[in-house]
Amino acid sequence: MSTVYNFNAGPSTLPKEVMSIAQNEFLNYDNLGYSIMEASHRSPEFQNVIDTAEGNIRKLLNISGDYSVLFLQGGASAQFSMIPMNFLEKGKTADYAQTGAWSEKAIKEAQRCGSVNIIASSKEKNHTYIPDIETWALSQNSAYLHITSNNTIFGTQFHQFPKPSPDAPLIADMSSDILSRKLNINDFGLIYAGAQKNLGPSGVTIVILNKNLLDRIPENLPAMLDYNTHIKSGSLYNTPPTFAIYMIMLTTNWIINHGGLDGIEQLNDEKAQALYDLIDTDDFFSCPVELGSRSKMNVCFRLPSEELENKFIASAKAEGMIGLKGHRSVGGIRASIYNAMPTEGVQSLTNLMVEFKKSHG
Ligand code: PMP
Fold first, then answer.
1. Main-chain dihedrals φ then ψ at residue 61, nearest 5 degrees
2. 280 Cα: distance to centroid of ligand 1 (angstroms)
C-alpha cells in the first residue's frame, strides 16, 4: 500500500506508531485474552488506562492538583452549552471573542443561557485575523472570557492569551491545537477540546478545569451536564467512550516519547514555517490570514484561480495527499498539519506546490 498523507481537519491523521500498537493489541490487550474494547469500564484494566491517559495529560501540561481533568462525551459542541449552564451566573455577563464559525456556535449556545457580550470580533474581515487582545475591555460583571485558541476553518490562532481576572477566568476551546505547544495552564480557568485532531479518535472530549470554579455551579442542573457529577465519579458516572480514551492514552504516550510539548512544538513550528515560507515567496500562492495570526495547525492558502485550486487538489490526490480542500466558507486550500502529520507529509506537499507552480505559474 502506498503512503497516503491525510490533511483532513478532523477526524484526522493519527500517529502510525499509535495505530500499529492499537492493531497489535486489539484482540489481546495486555495478555488478558480479550480486547480493551470489550473490557468493563469498571475493571482495573480500564481504570489503569484512564488513569494513565489523565496522568499523561497532567504531565505534558504540568497540571497541578488544583485542576480536574475530565473525559466527557458530546464533543466540543456539548461544552458550548455546559460552560454557560455551569458558569454564567444570573446577573453576570459572559464575554466572548468572535473569531470564527466555532466561536459563533459557542456564542449562540451561551445566549440561550443568559447575557453575552461579544468583546471582540474579526467577522468584518471574514475572520482573517485575531483581534488585538490589548484592546479588549471585559464587561464589568464578567462571568468569564471565552476564546477559541485555534480557528480550524479560518486558519487563525492565538499566539498570546488575554489575562482576565480570577473573577472572570479565561475559558478556551482548544479543539484544534491542544497539546500542540507549551502552555501555562494556570492562565486558564477551563480548557476543552474534542479529541479528534491532536488527541485520538472522535467520541471523547477533554475538559481541564480549575476546581475553584465549582462553587459557581447552580443546583439542580441535569446530572450529565453538571461538571461536579463527572469530577465526583472520575469521568465514570456513566459508560465512557472506553476505546477512544485508550487511544488518547497511546497518543499521549507517543507525545511524551517525542520530546513532550517541547519536541512537538518545535516540529509543528518547522512544518508550518515550511509551508508559509513557500506561500510567501511570490504571489502564485497567497495566504488570506494576517501574519501574526496564522495557525500552525491549519494552513489556509489560495492559488490564482478556483480552477487552479481544483486542479491542485486533484494533483495532490493523485499523489496520495487527501483532505486539502478548504472549508466551503473560505474556499481555497487548507492543509491541516496536526501533531501526527509527519514532516515527510509536509515535504511531499511543498514538493507538489513547487512543481505545480513551475507548470502553471
Ligand atoms: N471547536 C473547534 C475549534 C472545532 O474545530 C470543532 C470541530 N471541528 C468544534 C469546536 C466542534 O467539535 P465537535 O464536533 O467535537 O463538537
1. -100, 5
2. 29
Euclidean distance between CA atoms 78 and 57, whole angstroms = 21
Identity of residue 35: S
Question: Pocket around ligand 1: residues whose beta carbon is below 6 Å from it?
Answer: 10, 75-77, 102, 148, 152, 173, 175-176, 194
What digits encode the pLDDT tens for the residues 64-81?
999 999 999 999 999 999
Give the pLDDT score at 220. Answer: 93
Reading the block at residue 246, the C-alpha cell is 485508550
Residues with catalytic annotation?
102, 173, 197
CA distance to 54, 149, 188, 191, 208, per residue, from 67 (Å): 12, 19, 10, 10, 6
Report the distance separating Cα 320 and Cα 6, nearest Å.
Answer: 8
> d(Cα 156, Cα 287) in Å, to the nearest integer?
11
Q: What type of residue sits at position 80?
A: F
Residue 139: exposed, middle, or buried by beta-carbon count in 10 A (0-12, 13-18, 19+)?
Answer: middle
Copy the grid coordinates of residue 50: 484512564
Q: Where are the alpha helices (DSSP H) in 88-145?
A: 101-113
Interval 246-304: pLDDT, tens: 999 999 999 999 999 999 999 999 999 999 999 999 899 999 999 999 999 999 999 99
